[in-house]
Amino acid sequence: MPAAGLPFHATPMPSLRDPDSRLALLRTVAVAPLAFLDALASIWRFRPGVCCTTGGVVAIPVTLAARLMRVPVYLWDGNALPGRATRLLASFSSRIGVSYEQARRVLPRGRTVLAGTPIRASLLKWTRERGRETFAVPAEAMLVVVSGGSQGSERVNDALWSALGRIIRRAYVLHITGDKHGTRAEARRANLPDETRDHYIVRRFLGDEMGGALAAADLAIGRAGASSIAEPLAFGIPLLLIPFGAAMEGHQEANARAMEETGAAISMREGELDGDRFTAQVIGLLQNPDGLKRMANAARAAGRPQAARDIARDLLSLGGCG
User: Fold this and answer.
1) Are residues 138 and 109 in the same domain?
2) Are residues 202 and 297 in the same domain?
3) Do the Cβ atoms of 227 and 119 come closer than 8 Å?
4) Which of 181, 201, 271, 297 is placed for a possible disulfide with 174 were both Cys, Cβ 3.0 to 4.6 Å?
5) How far from chain centre, in Å, is Cα 317?
6) What is the number of other CB atoms lying within 10 angstroms of the CB of residue 219?
7) What is the mean predicted confidence (pLDDT) over 283-310?
8) What letter would DSSP give residue 107?
9) In terms of domains, do 169 and 266 share one?
10) Domain check: are 22 and 48 in the same one?
11) Domain count of the fold of the chain
12) Do 162 and 59 have their domain in common?
């Protein structure tokens, strides 16, 4: 926020990382009244037209303060299974935007709309041709993009490395490793045979070039978080999802099931993740072009690349700003 030149104020409310911890819960409850008063003071100074929140325990004091000050609240949730805090906040929200029809079913229907997940407009500027040129992938080759989320995933990386020799005989692999796994990935690449080494492309992190990776891809493999799903869908890319087993309240598993229902994805449980199963899933998809095409069509139908614009329009309308 400060880097974007926007005013920012942090409330003293801590994020509840472990909802099963009694100590963490007591600490959160103890701080909540102070956070509420802090939020009241900030809203009084700032005089907002509308309050936008993505939910979570940390948002409760701010949302309550906004409603006390008669500020309308827009709640957005990107998971198929809304958490407890989101379900609580929904009762105080004037409008609710969700990314999945499954979430819409358990939230107030008259105020809940299928909005999608906002993604950066800069990603959508990429074309398949420009993406393939950037990552040196031939036009006729298959490209698999593998990512374990912004921090990388050791489980996903290990499964890929076990399967790597078999997969790169059939396709190029662009592996976004996360910073702490980059050195190991580069060492593995150096040990590949000369004829397939260029088929394994390693990047520790991608910013706007993620748009190029997805525009060029034939299959995306990764976690089942909101953005990890929404970005490939915006490009109509089929998904192999590996939900993070420790995600709070099973959000990622619910997201993966929702995507399987659309036909745009298949999923693997983290506990089933090993080199042989991973290889079978990936090569099975690559060898089934008709199946991949059906998944791509389903992904394109489920994608909402203009979600950010639509949500912004709702916010302006709710706040009487446009």
Assistant:
1) no
2) yes
3) yes
4) 201
5) 26
6) 22
7) 96
8) S
9) yes
10) yes
11) 2
12) no
Boundaries of domain holding 149: 122-302
Phi-psi region of 31 (alpha: psi -120 to 50; beta: other; left: phi over 0): alpha
What is the CATH classification number for the domain harbouring 46?
Answer: 3.40.50.2000
Compute the radius of gyration of the chain from its Cα atoms: 21
* Mean pLDDT of the 265-278 span: 90
pLDDT band of 251, cuts 50, 70, 90: confident
Give the integer Cα–Cα distance in Å for 7 and 44.
15
- 300-313 confidence digits (pLDDT tens): 999 999 999 999 99
Do 14 and 142 share a domain, yes or no? no
Q: Is the backbone of residue 108 left (phi > 0), alpha (psi -120 to 50) or beta?
A: beta
The C-alpha angle with vertex 176 and arms to 138 and 196, in degrees rounded to 5, equals 40
Residues 38 and 133 in one domain: no
Please check whether residues 89 and 209 belong to one and the same domain: no
The percent helix, strand, coil of the chain (3-state, each to 5) is 50, 10, 35
Let me know: does 36 contact 57? Beta carbons within 8 Å: no
Give the confidence band of 17 by pLDDT, cuts at 50, 70, 90: low
Per the CB < 8 A criterion, the answer to whether 96 and 112 are in contact is: yes
- CA count, 13 A, side-chain hemisphere, 315: 16
**Secondary structure class of 207 (helix, strand, coil):** coil
Residues 6+ apart with CB under 8 A from 92: 63, 64, 67, 73
Note the pLDDT of residue 50: 95
